Amino acid sequence: MRPTTLCFPVDTRGCLLLGKKKRGFGVSKWNGFGGKIEIGETFRQCAIRELDEETGIVALVDDLEAVGILDFRFSANPNLDHISYIYFIRNYKGIPKETEEMKPCWFPVQTIPYDEMWKGDRVWLPLLLNGHKIVGTICFEPDNETVQSIDINKVPVIEEKKCKYV
Ligand SMILES: CNc1ncnc2c1ncn2[C@@H]1O[C@H](COP(=O)(O)OP(=O)(O)OP(=O)(O)O)[C@@H](O)[C@H]1O
Question: Which residues are listed as membrane-spanning (predicted)?
């Protein structure tokens, strides 16, 4: 799979916006907002475009905070393997609306629905919510669901690729 972005809006109360995926990859899971990068885009442009497409929220690339890079590996389906660039965004315009792809909902961090998310999320998302930046790899069993192995490292800064995807 092409690389993807994953973006989590955070509001002034510290709540996190998640979206219930209505179709496609990760259907029926609560997820961050994002998708596959398109040719000619930077990762930041991809994150902003996907956020707008999936929620109607409008934001600027410079307001994204790069917080992680995760390499998702699927042991039985390498065609699903992808790297995801992860961002928080605290400054944005608009009220999230339901789209054909996602149903959005704000969650206080204490009530994030980890049981209805990708199984690795409960390991790495709390690190981000505690202010860490991370780089890591998560491998899934052949069922594409169970975590086979997870290796997450805290890093001082995310080395972002600033170039356009070709
Ligand atoms: C495995 N553990 C995971 N945990 C958390 N999030 C995960 C994830 N694995 C993938 N993701 C995210 O899922 C989105 C893919 O979205 P996906 O629908 O494929 O992209 P896109 O909108 O381009 O698809 P269309 O081709 O338009 O349907 C993208 O944000 C990606 O980072």
Answer: none
pLDDT tens per residue across span 47-80 = 999 999 999 999 999 999 999 999 999 999 999 9
**1 Cβ contact partners less than 8 Å away, ≥ 6 residues apart:** 36, 79, 80, 81, 82
Cβ–ligand 1 distance for 156 under 6 Å, the answer no
Domain carrying residue 42: 4-155
Give the Å distance between the CA of 7 and the centre of ligand 1.
Answer: 11
pLDDT of residue 107: 98
The pTM assigned to this predicted structure is: 0.96
User: ipTM value of the model?
Assistant: 0.92
In a domain, residue 165? The reply is no
- 162: confidence class by pLDDT, cuts 50, 70, 90: confident
- φ/ψ of 26, rounded to 5, equals 80, 25
Using CA positions, which residue lies closest to atom 16 of ligand 1? 35
Q: Quick one: which H or E segment has residue 54?
A: helix 43-55
How many whole angstroms from 125 Cα to the centroid of ligand 1? 16
Ligand 1: which residue has its CA nearest to atom 3? 118
Check which CATH number belongs to the domain holding 122 and give it: 3.90.79.10
